[in-house]
Specification:
This protein is mainly beta. The protein is built from three helices and 30 strands. The chain is globular and about 60 Å long. The structure holds beta-D-galactopyranose.
Length: about 350
Amino acid sequence: MKTLIENFGRFNDHVVEKIVLKNNNNFQISLLSQGAIWNEFSVPVEENKKINLLLNFNSIDSYYSNPFYIGMSIGRTGGRIKAGKLTLNDTTYNLSQNENTNTLHGGETGFHSFIWDYETFQTDDTVSVVFSKRVSPQDDSYPGVLDVEIEYILNNKNEVIINYYGKAVDQDTVFNPTNHAYFNLEQSDNILDHELKINSHQILSMGQEKIPTGLFKETAGTPYDFHKFTFLKNAIEDLQSIPEKGIDDVFYIDQPSDCPIATLKSNRFNHQIDIYSQRNGLVVFTANSFTSDMNLSTGKGHPYQGIALESQTLPDTLNHKNFGNILLKKGQSVTYQTKIAYTHN
Ligand code: GAL
């Protein structure tokens, strides 16, 4: 096990640190103190060859010069909140409206924008970093002070575990965090030859501006049916006539269980990642609208370069009774876990 701290340049006049965590099998993840960004998941694929399974940038400025939240920590709430209005205990809070009149991914100054404190830890079988911050309403316009910790663990089973801890300090608030990593298991041009399986039979129906209507749609017989392994190119080809030209949807996860909620597989390298989560939603976004002005470390941006698999509670939660519970009562705390388990088949 090994931990290294490197300099990742400066952003808004402060130093950004890159925390590199290595396990005993030559796997490596790295995280940035800015945005608690997950920057790298490198795995050995052939003798003397490692590939990074995540899209990333070599400079911190490039992360913030596009609207795609690449690798960023997202909170207090992932997804869109209609008209930026959050009603809690009969009070309506006006959140930052950063996508038309709606709030996306915690607003302008969400978790992705913070400079996080951090501490690193090591045991015989794990290396980890815990990012922490006390978030106040002045920071992000959500109600109440929220203590947050985001922990990234790499272990010798080649799993990456993300723990999101939140505690409502002085009044009730909401907590529905996620991470916005984009995977490409081949470090290649696109994910069209990847296969995806999701433990889901329904997606959320969405109205204008991709706000959930409250209804669920069966996926059987549609391009969104990933109940069995399906090549992403099949779905993406079938979706060329819709404005998104690909997948940008919220999958409702069948009864949480010990099975993975999703598996992404590359036959080229004969490897896969299994995603585990106990929450009821998975946002899948196939990078449909990536643009050529993005200077990713592997080249210029273009559609379908990666796939974001964001485990979370269904978004716009407070506006729909049956979407789940993201409420944190004053004094209450919660930990959500997402596990990404790598296997070479
Ligand atoms: C996804 C969302 C997409 C897009 C993306 C970030 O979670 O569903 O519509 O906003 O984030 O650019």
